[in-house]
Amino acid sequence: MTYNSVYFIIYLFVFLVIYFLMPKVWMKQGIILVGNIVFYRLAGGLNYLVIVIGSSVIVYVISRWIEKIYQNYDNQKEGLSDKAQRTLLESYKKRCKKILVAGLFLILGILVYIKAGKLLHWEEVTRIVDFRFGLIIVPLGISYYTFSAIGYIADIYWRKIECEHNYLKLLMCMTFFPIIVQGPISRYNALMKQFDELPKFKYERLCYGLQLMLWGYFKKIVVADRLALYTSPVLSDLNSYAGIEVALAVLFSVFFIYADFSGGIDIVRGIAQAMGVTLEQNFRQPFFSRSVAEFWRRWHITLGAWLKDYVYMPLAMSPRFLKLGTNVRRKFGKRAGKIVSYSVPLFIVQILNGLWHGTGADYLAWGCYWGILSVLSIIFSNELIKLTEMLHINTDTFGYRLFQTVRTFFLFYIGKMITITGSLDGFVLLVKRLFSNSRLWVLFDGSIYKYGLEQKDFNIALFGILVICVADIIQQKHSIREIIAGCPLVLRWFIYYVAIMLVLIVGMWGSSYNVSDFIYGNF
Prior knowledge:
Elements: H1 6-21, H2 25-43, H3 46-76, H4 82-120, E1 128-129, E2 136-137, H5 142-157, H6 167-174, H7 177-180, H8 188-195, H9 203-236, H10 244-275, H11 292-298, H12 301-316, H13 319-332, H14 334-357, H15 361-379, H16 381-390, H17 398-419, H18 424-436, H19 455-475, H20 480-485, H21 489-506
Antiparallel strand pairs: 1-2
């Protein structure tokens, strides 16, 4: 039951009707919890649900255990000197750390087992133990709820947030059906606060949520699924294509992954907004980024924020790493120390970023690629500034900003080439076919329309890409939904009907069409 299936639409309609009829917050919470379980049962199966519930029990026990130890410290620190308090706190933190590590081992163990198994090509590794058949299954959304759970117990260990005592509320967060399959990677403490203050039905909020969902469906079933009709046959048989055919397949893949992933996020954020829950924004017009660093602040924002908070900062601020930076600074100068302090943790983060997306050698290479680019941008930042000054380049002009944007997009394009075929051998073949023959004539003799996309669908795909780009340009400075809300009633509903008809008539769906999963679903 994917988000773009008819079954899900029916499920969501029934869920929202029941949800809005509930007069009390605790009743709404109960409906959300039941709705989560029903959705997860229908989307995955009972065995998936057992594993997720088991994970939630581990998270609950570990978090309460850590809280109890810290409570003992709070009871014993009264009347002690500051130095004695610090000494006592360190002893209690060591105890908490052991529990934290044990919890991470249990929670992260399944995810690492699956990821490593895919990398090593273990048979049946894409499943975890099925108690009835002895097979192995992958719980839906395992990467998303695992990362969120790790962040939750880590924040409790660092005493940044309060521990949740109500297990059902924690379970409600971990299984929240809008985010469990597609993301974003949410902070459970922020979700819990919103669940405690679920608002009453509001027509404007429902409209905003449905608008965002509609925009997500446009990206997914009008644009992304249509682009896949061209990219799939070309990339699966590279020996039959070359030059512009391959270059166009890569370009379409870039827009496919953006339309598919951001479309899915728009759908889940729209569902949550209709319910009165605000989820984190996961994309902020990434293709208008002017640097590698800016791109990763705009693309998959919640993953980047998670890696920064729970990997980069702990590494960069760890005593051993600080000592390393200090030693390098003393021996090789201030700049060298700064480069080591920033670059090494950043490179490690990008490696993990690659392994999160996939476990083959191609994704490892992809992580190294972005790690190298990130490190080089730090190392040569001063030289780039001096170069632009020496060449008298005005960095405030539109032309220079456009150059930076195109450059960053091209770097993403190259990165996509590394993983697009599923292997490094495929990447090498793709590069060879890309430069073996131009085949520019296919753009003019109609041959390009024989590779999966007929001329009508080809034009619709290009139109969809244009619409997405224009919308992103407008969103840079203005809210499109607020602009629409400010329109006269007749014009506003005209826009709604046109958008709905566009999705229904032009979208890739129906009895003869096999509904495609979201590319980042089931991570």
